[in-house]
Amino acid sequence: MGSSNNNLGKFLVGFGSKPRPIFAFSRPKLPFAVSSSLLPSSPETDLVMASVNKTMLLFHPSTSNVSARIHPVVLFNICDCYVRRPDQAERVIGTLLGSVSSEGVVEIKNSYAVPHNESADQVALDIDYHHTMYVSHQKVNPKEVIVGWYSTGAGVTGGSALIHDFYSREVANPVHLTVDTGFTNGDTSIKAYISFNLSLGDRQLAAQFQEIPLDLRMIEAERVGFDILKMTIADKLPNDLEAMESTMERLRSLIDDLYKYVDGVVEGRLPSDKDIGRFIADSLASLPNISPAAFDKVFNDKIQDNYALVYLSSLARTQLAIAEKLNTAAQSSFWFCLLQGEGWLQKGRKTDPQISFLNLIQLEVYILLAVVAIESLSAFNITSLRAGLALGRHELG
Amino acid sequence: MANTMGRSFLQAVATEEAAPPLRVVQMEGLAVLKIIKHCKEFSPSLVTGQLLGLDVGSVLEVTNCFPFPTREEDDENEADGANYQLEMMRCLREVNVDNNTVGWYQSTLLGSYQTVELIETFMNYQENIRRCVCIIYDPSRSNQGILALKALKLTDSFMDLYRHNNFTGEKLREKRLSWVDIFEEIPIKVSNSALISAFMTELEPESPVLQSDLDRLKLSTSPFMERNLEFLIECMDDLSAEQNKFQYYYRNLSRQQAQQQAWLQKRRTENMARKAAGEEPLPEEDPSNPIFKPIPEPSRLDCFLITNQVANYCNQINGAAGQSFSRLYLMKALHEN
Prior knowledge:
The structure holds 2 protein chains of 2 kinds. By secondary structure, chain A is α+β, with helices and mostly antiparallel strands.
């Protein structure tokens, strides 16, 4: 337990003066600029803050094409890390892994937490830990590279600039993701930022964080189903047919809604909308127009195919049940009776008294049924079984 | 440190005494998503990973997991893999993730996971941890909107038998063990922290149609069915090969027994003659004679596993056919409208 603290402090940066926002850019509440006077990367260690607003405004870059997409596993991981954070820790931070597409979309696919220590004027990040974890993750999936870092809490805070600077040495233009685990504003705020260095000439003045669009649609989560991801406890996984039922229910309610809307428009209760109308027409047109006879044929063929499959699989299962009975319970006795004659059968029956005459009859009916169709699947041990049964019947009769 | 170790040892002793049967595997949503992500990204190649969590009474909690790198057949890499595992465990412990191994997960293709390797891995794990499960995920089925997640463990009676490596017909009959009794499926519960639950409730999309609905309503199932049947037929062939092995064995056995009888008969007449001549009779048993050497009975393990597989394919076909029935009738109803 105590050993974890020893690793800290390998990366120590501090800043003497308190960070303060300098000015706001066009996006009203997002931009946040932090003075970073002691950035370890910059050779000039002691910079005076400049107050020439005009010059800085020139640095407002065009970044409209950068956006981020988040995989649900990242969100889950961040929340889990937050729940498991050490005592007294205000927030957790960690590394984001993923890929950057050519269009500038940053896909955040994975993450891991990195232990850190934060006090009023310094931030310590366990760099060793970060690197070991990164190497481990690379072993599993070399395609996932560092794309940025995350932190819990609302928005960007003072220490963020320093951590961001560290990550910008790992990767160019890291993304900073903040997840408001405290629900400070009463709603979920998950935001992504990129940062720019504002400098005057050679002198670095501040880092500015600008929010970028974040795509929160989680197709992967939809695939798993919100039913089980939303509940604090879900008693069971939905099985095939239940899931199907809920889907159909949803489809039906959609069609009902559609009816209601169309009726409303026709009766003049609702305003008509050309776009919606076009959508409805499109989706109706996407139903293939086949004659009833042709449809019936296709439908019946499909149904019959399915019946055949179900039949085959049930048959195979029946066959397994029989084989199991005869194999484990009676195989030795039956084989001996086949090969050694009737004396052996007597003996075999003594050891397996549960095989009664009735059972045998029943089994044979099954087997005769099975023989017909199973031939297409595979020649089982049917012939041998039949021979055994015939002999057994002869004996009992 | 010593304190916690002492306690965990006490706990271990306590569980040793009580050890209620494992009833439920409770998975954290995070673990579910991580497994799915890993399995899906590498599909169709099969991958594995480790499950971390806690063993609480009759519930096994799986709170986290981490993937194993894809293995290459190399001795050097084996040590690498072990190192990776240790490193990962150490790192995760540092951020307060549960540090107990509770099993492993693996992906599968159409549910073909019943192999001897799986059983061997199970036995390996079982040696180190008393209670473990294997989570099996089938990425190929998720494209149909099905969450194919399964928790398996070996039954105690089977493990007992496997340890003694005794798969003769007689032994199996004695234990009343059939192929159904190899694996035991344990129901899975999914739990999430309140925080996640809040986030997901907020983030649930407004749109009434989810991706899984669209997947489920896809009409074409034939590729899935075809592959399933293909595998089924393959399994059937394997099964009949196994049967042939047994037939061969029994034929040999009976031939040997006939030979033994003949030899005995001969020896008896000989002895009769010797008795009449007043000589000492020869012994009725001759261990040096090759016809008295017992023929080894083939193991039934393979046969059992294949049977399991066949049953699994049958279930899958039935399930998929059931779905396709409902889809087809839905389509019909739509058309009639």
